[in-house]
Each structure stands twice: as structure tokens, then as C-alpha cells.
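Hi everyone, sorry if this is the wrong subforum. Our group has a chain we'd like a structural model of before ordering constructs, and none of us has done structure prediction before. Sequence below.
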Amino acid sequence: MREPLVVDSSVAVKWYIPESGSDRAALLLRAGVRLVAPDLLIPEVGNVIWKRRREIPVAEIEAIAVALSSACPVSLYPSSALLQGALSVALAYGRSVYDSLYLALAVSEACPLVTADERFSNALQNTDLAEYTQLL
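Answer:
Right subforum, don't worry. Here is the predicted structure as C-alpha cells:
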């Protein structure tokens, strides 16, 4: 099996809502690489969809929710098992615990975190965690 990739919600939402970078996010699904994320991914994507509810028809929101809960293309890891590492990252680098859960998983799996969050990626570029972050 190939090395996994951690994906965050900024990437996953692009699988369901066409926006800038959706084509690159879709390539990850077709690449044959095992994708992993903390289980926080599901509520985070749900929250993004909720925030954009004025742009997306209700039927489409419901279809996305079904797809996320029944056929999520990502292997999910319990956030509770990642919390200690996430808190260490958050405290050391001034990042949110939410974002740090994804980084903690990348560190524990010794693989890259792919994100579309440019601000987050840039904030880590001159740190020892830079090797774990990859902009979509």
C-alpha cells in the first residue's frame, strides 16, 4: 500500500461543492492513495455546507450529508486518540486544536497533510512541521 495522505476539510469540501481547486481535490480521489483524516472532518465539512446554505439547494445539501455519512472516501481516525498530540501542536505553533488534529494525524502516520488553506500552510512554512504540510 502507498503512503497515506491526510486531507482536511478545506480539501474534502471541494469534492462536493465545485469551487477553485475542486479539480485538484478530485485528483486525490482518483490517485489510488489511501486518504485519512480525523473524524472531525465530517462535522467540519457539514458546517461549511451549512454556512453556504443560501448557495446550495436543500436537496443537494441532503445528498452531500448522505454521501459523507455513508460513503466517505476517507478512513477516519478518532479525534480523541489524536487530542494530546493536537494540543501539543496547537500550544507550540499557535494553531487551533481543530487544525492541529489534522497535523497530529500527519505526524503520527509520518505522511503529508494536504490542505487548501493557504493561510494555515503558510503559517507552518518556517517550522519543523513544514515537511508535513502540502498545499493542494
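For your construct planning: The CA atoms of residues 63 and 113 lie 27 Å apart. DSSP finds seven helices and five strands in the chain.
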